[in-house]
Amino acid sequence: MRAEIADDTQSAEHAATFPRGGDYVDLRENPRALERIPAARQYVPLRNFLAAVNGADSVFSSASASALLQPPPAGSSGEGFSFSSWTSLVFAETALNFDRDSYAEIVARLKGLLERDSGEALLATLRISPCQFTEQARQGYCLNIQLWAQGNSAGQAEMRWGLGLARLQQALLFSARALRQRQRGA
C-alpha cells in the first residue's frame, strides 16, 4: 500500500468542525448508532472499521465517514474502477486534540506500517487538518484519512478497498497502543 502524509494545519481549506452539526453520531457512547450512517449500513468493511476505531481499545473517535465507487472514465483502459472512503478521526482524550505532535506521531507510525504491504492498487492519504472543537471553543487538529483502491471491475476495487481498510484498522489500533504506552511512561 502506498501512503502519503499531508499536513494542512496552516490551511483553512481542509478545516473541520467537531462535532459536526446534526449528522454527528457519537459511536463511542452509542455503538448501535452505526445504523444511522448510510455508508456503514451499505459497506460491511466500513461498519467494522468504525466499530473498531470507536471501541474501548481505541484512542480515537470518528467524526465522519463516507464511501464511493467511481466507474472508469469513458475511453480508459486498465484498472479504471476506483473505490474510496473518507474518515475523519479525533482523539477520544480531548487534550490530545490540541497537540499537533500526537497527530504527527500517529501518521508517521501509520505510514511506516501501511507501506510494509506492497502493491500499487491501494493508496492512503493521511491528512492532519485544523479542526474547531465546538464544546471547548478552541481550535485543534483532526486526522482525515482517504483510502483509494483500484480494480479492473467494481467488485475488485471494492474488495481491495475492504482489505485495505482492514489493514488500516490494524495499523491504527497498533499505533494507538504505542501512543497509549508512551503516555503511561511519560
In short:
With 186 residues, the protein is an alpha/beta fold.
Structure notes:
Strands 1, 2, 3, 4, 5 and 6 form a 6-stranded mixed beta sheet that branches. This protein is α/β, with parallel strands linked by helices and 186 residues long. It has one domain. Helix 2 (44-53) runs parallel beside helix 4 and helix 3 (100-114) packs across helix 4. Strand 5 (122-133) and strand 6 (138-151) form a beta hairpin. The chain has helices at residues 38-42, 44-53, 100-114, 154-185; strands at residues 2-7, 16-18, 60-70, 81-91, 122-133, 138-151. The model has no long low-confidence stretch (mean pLDDT 89).
Set out the fold topology.
Elements: E1 2-7, E2 16-18, H1 38-42, H2 44-53, E3 60-70, E4 81-91, H3 100-114, E5 122-133, E6 138-151, H4 154-185
Parallel strand pairs: 1-5, 2-5
Antiparallel strand pairs: 3-4, 4-6, 5-6
